[in-house]
């Protein structure tokens, strides 16, 4: 499946004239790289693929904060491609080793290691700065389903939960956004 998606993406880039490479200025401030590429696939549609990753071992020496997200997305532009408002639909996946935000205070010795998938939507606005540069301001959210194993970060052996294989957690939530600075390749 992954090989077919990559092949489709490469063919799409070569078959159409407008392709942008992008980086998220907002996440770069937190030293969490978010890179992407977007290319033309129709009159008002584009295909975007971005990767965001955190390589932080921890913010405070106790809470792990490592993750990687992969988001392929089809976008529909209301005016014209790469100019004005758009919406997108995506199915993405992620891997992580982190502590849930609501455990920071109540369960400070717990963390989760696992993987998940996301199904959601993006709303955004593209603002052309020049023939080669544009800003892509966006917010992304939807359903996230995680499969993880709960561990202790204080050296306690074993797992903190009783699930035999993976624990599961699903919720509706925002999980992406920022300001992408985009550069037109061709």
Explain what this protein looks like in three dimensions.
With 186 residues, the protein is mainly beta. It contains two helices and eight strands, in the order αβαβββββββ. Strands 1-2-3-4-5-6-7-8 form an eight-stranded antiparallel beta barrel. The radius of gyration is 18 Å and the shape is elongated. The model has no long low-confidence stretch (mean pLDDT 89).
In summary, what is this structure?
The chain is mainly beta and 186 residues long.
What keywords describe this structure?
single chain, 186 residues, mainly beta, 8-stranded antiparallel barrel, 59% strand, elongated
Question: What is the element layout, followed by pairings?
Answer:
Elements: H1 2-15, E1 19-24, H2 25-28, E2 34-40, E3 45-56, E4 65-77, E5 84-98, E6 110-128, E7 133-152, E8 167-184
Antiparallel strand pairs: 1-2, 1-8, 2-3, 3-4, 4-5, 5-6, 6-7, 7-8
Q: What is the makeup of the main sheet?
A: 8 strands, antiparallel, barrel
Cα distance spanning the termini:
28 Å
Q: Helical segment tally?
A: 2
State the shape.
elongated
Give the C-alpha Rg.
18 Å
User: Would you identify the regions where 5 or more consecutive residues have pLDDT less than 50?
Assistant: none
């Amino acid at each position: 499946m992954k090989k077919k998606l990559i092949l489709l993406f490469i063919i799409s880039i070569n078959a159409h004239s407008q392709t942008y490479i992008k980086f998220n200025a907002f996440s770069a401030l937190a030293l969490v790289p978010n890179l992407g590429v977007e290319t033309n696939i129709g009159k008002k549609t584009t295909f975007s693929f971005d990767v965001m990753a955190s390589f932080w071992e921890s913010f405070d020496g106790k809470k792990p904060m490592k993750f990687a997200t992969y988001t392929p997305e089809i976008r529909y532009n209301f005016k014209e491609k790469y100019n004005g408002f758009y919406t997108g639909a995506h199915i993405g996946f992620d891997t992580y080793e982190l502590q849930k935000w609501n455990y920071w205070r109540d369960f400070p010795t717990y963390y989760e290691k696992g993987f998940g998938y996301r199904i959601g939507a993006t709303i955004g606005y593209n603002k052309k700065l020049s023939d080669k540069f544009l800003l892509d301001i966006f917010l992304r959210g939807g359903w996230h389903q995680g499969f993880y194993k709960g561990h202790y970060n204080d050296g306690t052996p074993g797992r903190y939960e009783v699930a035999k294989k993976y624990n599961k957690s699903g919720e509706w939530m925002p999980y992406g956004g920022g300001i992408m600075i985009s550069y037109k390749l061709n």
